[in-house]
Amino acid sequence: MYLGLDLGTSGVKALLIDAGQTVIGSGHASLDVSRPHPGWSEQDPSDWIRACEEAVAELKATHPRELAAVKGIGLSGQMHGATLLDAGDQVLRPCILWNDTRSHAEAAALDADPRFRKLTGNIVFPGFTAPKLAWVKNNEPDVFAKVAKVLLPKDFLRLWLSGEHISEMSDSAGTSWLDVGKRGWSSDLLAATSLDEKQMPSLTEGTAKAGALRAELASKWGMQAGIPIAGGAGDNAASACGMGTVGAGQAFVSLGTSGVLFAANASYLPNPESAVHTFCHALPDTWHQMGVILSATDSLNWLSEISGKGAGELTAELGDALKAPTGVSFLPYLSGERTPHNDSAIRGSFTGLAHESSRAVLTQAVVEGVAFAFRDSLEALAKAGTTLTRVTAIGGGSRSRYWLRSIATALGLPVDIPADGDFGAAFGAARLGLIAATGADPLTVCAAPATDATIEPVAALSDAYADAYQRYRALYPAIRSVTT
């Protein structure tokens, strides 16, 4: 058996697979996000431990014998979070999360230093880790002076599981401190934020052994002590391992809280001007590119809360057949946007509203707005040298066939739906645990699932969608002048 632990923003998932990669069982525990000020987003790392304990306890209650047979553990986690520890490994302040934008000024200052884009292959986004440390230095100097280690969220879990400070390439590529081409910490970039390599975890590949399960936890969970823990991956790279998106040209679209258009690459292809993320993959000598939108299903959840109707109810009102855009447009910039704008201050909007704009019209506009945001990412990936011929859909929003038809038509690409199964980040983490424990070939283990169905673009609406996309593109510069 192999255990995948995925530390997400809204919860921790523990997933158990056997040697044949059949999912045996899973456990889950919820997490909350604290937003003490506008633009802030934090979590208490002790809550991650509590949630991990609960998720594993659920697995133990339902599958004690299988849990006892675990031979390898893999980790996945939300990226970019700044978890600050003192010399005694005590947490100094709540973790500043990936969707926190307080450090926009610090990010702009670091991005103005040409070394950052040159070495990391990325813009320094406010959500990345380095500008958060610059913010802490500027605003909480007493805390900054005590920082002995900076860990990413999943690597804080690793510290609790194994007692070791270790990270891996895919997650560390999102810090703005990693030389992404050389896959190692940059002393120059660390020095630019008044840090050094001693304050960083050691680095390994996602498929390698990176710590072992402590005897105390092993005893509590009925497992063997010393079980190897894989390096693991940031959540999107872990999802790619779960989906088999590990070879050049393979891609997926993730319709979750945030949205990701992810493409695997066999070489390092940076193009930071496009606001595409270029990161190391979880597999050795492999990289990936991502276009990222900050509010995907979160946009529909927002409308759900406003309207008092569940997200599923809202999309059900649209019916099954894709409709032509109505003229009402929605910009999904509820908490700023990454690709292609790198704009933490922009905010969302509806335009074209009229008396006849029903709830269903607003829902359709939200669905289309998110689809067009993915189209923005597709255009950015093309500028970065990546051409896609099809994508696989994952994430909670992919349950809506209407939304997938909208995305397929907006992208002009077929969208594959994987056969029933759990192929997300926790599954990818479990796969990495299997590879680390057995030495199995990563490409063989990380095979793509069978395709259950393919959603083709609706050709009859391609012109209408193209017109609506151009309208969408024109709105950002117009709205920006009055919302920032």
Q: How does the SSE layout of this entry go?
A:
Layout: E1 2-7, E2 11-17, E3 23-30, E4 42-43, H1 45-62, H2 64-68, E5 72-77, E6 83-85, E7 95-96, H3 104-111, H4 114-120, H5 129-139, H6 141-145, E8 149-151, H7 153-162, E9 166-168, H8 169-172, E10 178-179, E11 184-185, H9 187-192, E12 202-204, E13 209-212, H10 215-221, E14 228-230, E15 233-234, H11 235-243, E16 251-255, E17 259-265, E18 277-280, E19 287-293, H12 297-307, H13 311-316, E20 329-331, E21 349-351, H14 359-383, E22 391-394, H15 401-411, E23 415-418, H16 425-438, H17 442-445, E24 451-455, H18 462-483
Parallel strand pairs: 1-5, 5-15, 9-12, 16-22, 22-23
Antiparallel strand pairs: 1-2, 2-3, 4-7, 6-8, 10-11, 13-14, 16-17, 17-19, 18-19, 20-21, 23-24
Helix pairs in contact: 1-7, 3-5, 11-16, 12-14, 14-15
